[in-house]
What does this fold into?
Amino acid sequence: MLSNSFTNVSCGSSSELYSETCRDESAALILKMVAIASILIAGIAGISLPLVGRKSRFLGTDSNLFVVAKAFAGGVILATGFVHMLPDATSALNDPCLPKYPWSKFPFSGFITMVASLATLLADFLGTQYYASKQEKQPTRVESVEVMSESGIVEVKEKNDIGEDEDEGMHIVGIHAHAAHHRHSHSQGHGGCDGSLKKKLLEDQTGSHSHGVDDEEDGLRHVVVSQVLELGIVSHSIIIGLSLGVSQSPCTIRPLIAALSFHQFFEGFALGGCISEAQFKNLKATIMACFFALTTPSGIALGTGIATSYNHNSPRALVIEGILDSISAGILIYMSLVDLIAADFMSKRMSCNVKLQVMSYFALFLGAVLMSSLALWA
It folds into this structure.
């Protein structure tokens, strides 16, 4: 019966798996305090690196090192969804404690993961539409005058309301300028890579940067990606924090400390990179960073507080954890594949730099393999 899925009575088969020989509440409490400190430090370090270094040469969002490190973090998050969250969800929802109907009659973990991925796609789309419409409603204070440069690139000089130049530099803006630049590149027989290189050299020489429709769309995408990714990371961070917190077994907690610290650092780096690319103001970026860094330690603290009353072997706990793990898996798989990996690996920058391609693919697979290997201990 479905009602039997929500009882809080311990399941005998699952309880037998919980080794009483390793139960030590005092030792477990000490290890939980160590876990809170270690995971907190790892989370702060991971998310701070791209935020603090976003204006530096090596850790800035336009540096090759940042792209490679982000690829590694993308592999970590992908493995988290496929190797850690989804199998845990399947194990929980197929546990012998649960009634055979409906849990053994339908692959709920895979179905919920699929629905969560599609819901994330919808949230991604609606969020982008919302920010785009919000930006369109903002009053325009500058007008653009098209100018043809010696190189043949259509440029504009921005003027403010009183007719004065807003900046001394020239900026490539607007869809017409973008299209003209595209046509010019091809008419000269150069590929997209040559055009991008010339554009970068022009920016370096003039000290200006191009602002086009593509740049605005990228900015909107980064805003949405950072917020949806944080939602997915935070949701599963609460789960793993609670799972560690309610455990009274040092044998279970000890390997989790190293595994979760590693996991938290690179998840933080990926999220910090997205926040950095979204170019949030310092206050908002700091709030998002703190929210991420504190979630898992808070989950551990909450789990420690309810450890005596929370029965993690009950059917109710298994159903809740299985559903939340499935949702987290769906969000993380979508975000890692679509917004972290595909967004960078399908970009013109990647296709124009063979060395960057090789390094990024190596980092991607390395991150996925290392995070997957942690399943041996956690």
Notes: Residues 13-19, 159-190, 204-213 have pLDDT under 50 and may be disordered. Residues 58 and 72 are 16 Å apart (CA to CA). Residues 213-246 form the longest helix (34 residues).
